[in-house]
Design goal:
mainly alpha; two-stranded antiparallel sheet; membrane
Length: 371
């Protein structure tokens, strides 16, 4: 029995598959940072803050597009994180201070002592900025202030689209108030008002503030730098101590064993976290292949529904389109009402003319109409 034909989605393996699934996730992650944060800061931001896009999406989904209660919960989460980071950084700073009193530290390469000093300084700065960020969060008393701090408003050049809808709404309301009774007013006006309120909210909290998000992440970035430089300083110190020097009074053999144990512990301890983290990043990147598959022309007919919209699409587009459609529908309804009012006025004019004994020329026959 012949084998079934391969699926169009199946691809043959090739030597480039390894490069595709190792380099592509890294490049894709960098492109996300570049698309979200801009081309200029991306090359400097990605090496020190590779998960910037995840943080910005977390703020956007859980703060900017939610009510004030949710924003206050996230604010409490940020405050708790600052407390934890301050305690951890204080411990690292204490370890760095103690490390400066290591025996023979002045006799090894200067980079060992420099790394320990850098670790001490970054740990102290991490404690300081953790306190500053926590103080800032404490001063945000309600959800509106939290959203204002973490967001940027809409750009000036993009306001005109919303202004057109708002002015149309005011014109329609003024027309109704002047010409129609309350029971005759269009039922779509309250719905348009709700959409305008939503537009106001989206324009006020248009996008996440990269600067504010960076302020929140500074303490943990400094703590990461402090721990890394402390480990590097210890490594340089133990490496130099493993070289036998009779003036030090220590055995080079024993120091070599200590240095070997140190390297094994650091490498294994780092891999315990680095391997699962890398795999998860790879899985997260490849999860987007399903959306790309559904966007193809040959598969869109199968699913017959739109894929999830890209996160880079402005959140203000949908309510703006809805408001414009509502305004157009209401405007069309007014035109219909206006035409009906003109016809009704014409009929009333004919009736008044007949009742007053006048003569009106028929527009079709051209014959006089007697009383």
């Amino acid at each position: 029995m012949p084998d079934p034909p391969p699926s169009p989605t199946e691809k043959k393996s090739s030597p480039l598959e390894f490069i595709k699934y190792t380099v592509r996730p890294v490049l894709g992650s960098f492109w996300d940072v570049q698309k979200t944060c801009g081309s200029t800061p991306a090359p400097y931001l990605y090496p020190i803050w590779h998960d910037a896009v995840d943080v910005l999406r977390h703020i956007e989904d859980n703060i900017l597009h939610t009510n004030g209660e949710k924003a206050m919960q996230i604010k409490k989460q940020f405050s708790d994180d600052c407390t934890m980071l301050a305690v951890a950084a204080a411990i690292v700073a204490q370890v760095a201070i103690t490390s400066l009193s290591l025996q023979y530290l002045d006799e090894v390469r200067w980079t060992a002592k420099a790394s320990i000093i850098i670790s001490l300084l970054t740990a102290v700065l991490s404690v300081f900025f953790s306190c500053r960020v926590q103080q800032k969060m404490t001063n945000l008393l309600n959800g509106k202030e939290v959203k204002d701090f973490l967001s940027n408003q809409i750009k000036k050049k993009e306001i005109h689209e919303i202004e057109k809808v708002a002015r149309k709404y005011e014109e329609l309301r003024a027309y109704e108030d002047a010409n129609l009774k309350e029971e005759e007013r269009n039922a779509k006006i309250p719905e348009l008002k709700e959409v305008l309120d939503e537009l106001d909210d989206r324009a006020r909290y248009y996008q996440v503030s990269l600067v504010a998000a960076m302020m929140i992440k500074v303490p943990v970035l400094l703590l990461n730098a402090s721990i890394s430089t402390l480990i590097i300083g210890f490594g340089i110190y133990l490496k130099d101590m493993s070289v036998y020097d009779p003036d030090r009074g220590l055995s080079g053999t024993h120091s070599k064993y200590i240095y070997a144990i140190y390297v094994v512990i650091v490498v294994c301890g780092s891999l315990i976290y680095a391997i699962p983290w890398s795999i998860k990043r790879y899985e997260t990147f490849n999860a987007r292949h399903w959306d790309a598959y559904k966007k193809r022309e040959d598969t869109a007919k199968i699913w017959r529904k739109e894929v999830l919209r890209e996160r880079q699409k402005r959140a203000i587009d949908e309510p703006l389109e809805k408001a414009q459609k509502l305004a157009a529908d209401i405007d069309k309804d007014y035109q219909t009402r206006d035409d009906m009012a003109k016809r009704y006025a014409m009929v009333e004019d004919v009736i008044k003319t007949i009742n007053n004994g006048g003569v009106r020329r028929d527009s079709v026959e051209g014959n006089p109409v007697p009383r």
